[in-house]
## 1
Amino acid sequence: MGTKRIVIVGGGAGGLALASKLGRKLGLKSKADILLIDRSPIHIWKPKLHEVAVGAIDQSIEGLLYRDHGLKNGYRYQRGSLEALDPDAKTIQLSALYNERQELLMGPRTIEYDYLVLALGGVSNSFNTPGAESHCIFLDNLQNAEQFHRQLLDGLMLLDETQSRLSIGIVGAGATGVELAAELHHVVESVREFGYQNISKQHLDIHLIEAAPKILPQLPDRVSGRAQAVLDKIGIHLHLGVQVKEVTKEGFTTQDGNLIRADIRVWAAGVKGPNVFSDLSKLPITPRNQVEVDACMRVKGHTDIYALGDCAQLILADGKPVPPRAQAASQMAETLYHNILNRLAGQAEAPFEYRDYGSLVSLSRFSAVGNLMGNLRRGDFFIEGHVARFMYLSLYHRHLSSLFGWFSALVYRLAQKLLRWQRPKLKLH
Ligand SMILES: Cc1cc2nc3c(=O)[nH]c(=O)nc-3n(C[C@H](O)[C@H](O)[C@H](O)COP(=O)(O)OP(=O)(O)OC[C@H]3O[C@@H](n4cnc5c(N)ncnc54)[C@H](O)[C@@H]3O)c2cc1C
């Protein structure tokens, strides 16, 4: 039996952690061929995308190059976008690659696998709201974050020149919307230090629109109540229990006929599986475009294909699906890592057990809030301020540890901090 080819599509919170661990364990010793495919050459941990969008972090410093990382961690990297899958032939097809001028770089490619892992993440769900796709930015990937960043810089430049007002509307007050609103407020508060002398926070209107009656609807009342108090204090306009009926270039028309004006419009509501899944007719795809997997993360009916993270629907023993969160993707990667090693050794695979450690929301420099769960005490308990900030950052550190190992992750963080200390705190170009 030759070397097994393990192909992982999607190098995000789950896929990259899995590729790194398998690469170090098997790839570096040539015990298996680990191939990671991602449509982007750079990895940014998705929970940091809103920080890229506002310029609080610079992807050229925080971004990780798959090719370089793969070389050191025992996996191969290929840039490409999944467009088709043939489970009978055990092949996937990657779409043709074009450069910025839409010139063909590479035609479609076919890749063979022995085991395939789908880790493509999810995208925001516009629920077919008219105008949402054409008039909103979706914070789903690095390109989206950069697009938002460019619009924000144009808006700030205009504000500085004309002292008019800039209005930003965000649909969805889940973690993404709330964190983005707080971060935006902080950025506008700080830009005077960077030469935008005529801008003050009074020039900015941030609207956060949520269909549920509270912000952070998935989180306990105490966490959302405290986060709401912080947003109220810094002057974010909250529109709760409000449904968006249509989006135009003027702003958001609500179900009751009001127009919430917004120069920059962001859609950060709902999560569904990647659009390409609707073309994978041989796989069991749910109405929310996720692929159904069994307890061991095998795609139902296909023992050689696995899926993890936001693109997978795994129903737990209590009947609830695993939530689309970074901690879930990372735990799934850990279980799948052991299962793949077991499978290669001819041993049984273990079912995935989700451990909810709680949720943390960063409110930029203003605060951080969350609830922790687990062994520390029965049930969950509320945390805030420095403790919550520390726990929030430790989530990122855990992700880095799976990519580099614990010690190298620490060195990497320190190096990043030093680089950031030397450079401007905001990326305004
Ligand atoms: C702004 C923001 C803030 C968030 N904050 C938090 C938080 O604080 N805590 C938390 O737990 N969760 C948070 N989340 C959710 C969390 O980021 C996701 O649940 C998590 O990243 C899912 O991991 P994943 O591995 O499934 O997919 P992702 O991390 O999304 O990675 C998917 C990868 O697949 C690649 N890909 C996609 N389509 C293709 C294709 N066709 N071909 C090839 N490659 C493809 C993408 O480029 C990407 O690298 C946040 C999300 C956002 C957007």
Note: The chain has eleven helices and 27 strands.
## 2
Amino acid sequence: MSFHDAIGFSPALNKSDGSLMKFSDVELEFPQNAGIDTPVITNKAIALRFPAISYGDYIQFAAAVAIRNCAGPRIKFWHGRPDPTAASPPDMIPDPSDSVTKMLDRMGDAGFTPEELIDLLASHSLAVQEDIDKTIPFTPFDSTPTVFDTQFFVETLLEGTMFPGNGSHPGEVMSPFPDEFRLQSDFLLARDSRTSCYWQSFIEDESVIGPRFAKAMEKLSLVGQDKGSLVDCSHMVPDVVDITPRPPHIPAGKSLDDIEASCTERPFPTITTDSGPETSIPKPPKGNDGDDDEEGDTEDD
Ligand code: HEM
């Protein structure tokens, strides 16, 4: 939500932070927002109970709390965004079928460098797909979907061998494991000469992921805002026990030969390869997706 709300910005247009919620009737019709209708609707119902908090503040605070609750880095939270006055225009959110040039241009227009886009994509370490292939909802983008780590950067470089669901869909490319999903956008950014060495740098030094992601997320949360008129309320973001993730590694069943190393400036780093039967990929625990007819769903109260 944080990205899909904030990226609806261009210097040529009025800023409209929080518009994803306030004008959800308009913005949830954008094809790129297909997978986030339930979180937006669920969170809007909560936000409405706190009229003193703007939608923009709500979205960015919720993102900071959610990331921390998943043992991601502590993102600074600035409070005081005014409420939006208009919906974001269509076609501002990158699409998984976009070319690298189109993605970089869109991000550049909103004030982000190619490196900052890759920093933000560390979020795909904790992400799943629901709407590209609806037959396999909650299929993650790496083998450690509940841990904020660098496995996403390793596994997007593995050779794709299969489609995990019912075949190919726009925005999808072949994945290396039957229970893992791969976006075309991630595949291309991992291999493009403009971004591949920076992509690899997360595998060369896994300690950079937290600080880089926190800095880029703070910038995302301030897009189009006057920081001087906001108040630093970062102390509101909970402190949780840090989890030390495993260093980047090649999952069992694959080897270095399966890595499509794409950085031409430096060799691919030496990382360990797990042995044993092919890594099995857990589905992340299902949150409240608003689908009340499925076993195990609970009311969100
Ligand atoms: C080139 C830019 C990006 C593209 C093309 C892209 C595309 C996508 C797509 C297609 C999905 C799956 C949606 C679904 O089927 O439910 C997804 C999931 C996700 N993305 Fe991105 N994304 C991009 C950048 C980002 C950024 C910058 C962030 C955060 C700062 C982000 C956070 C997430 C998260 C958290 C999910 C999982 C949502 C869930 O669990 O329901 N993405 N992304």
Note: DSSP finds eleven helices and six strands in the chain.
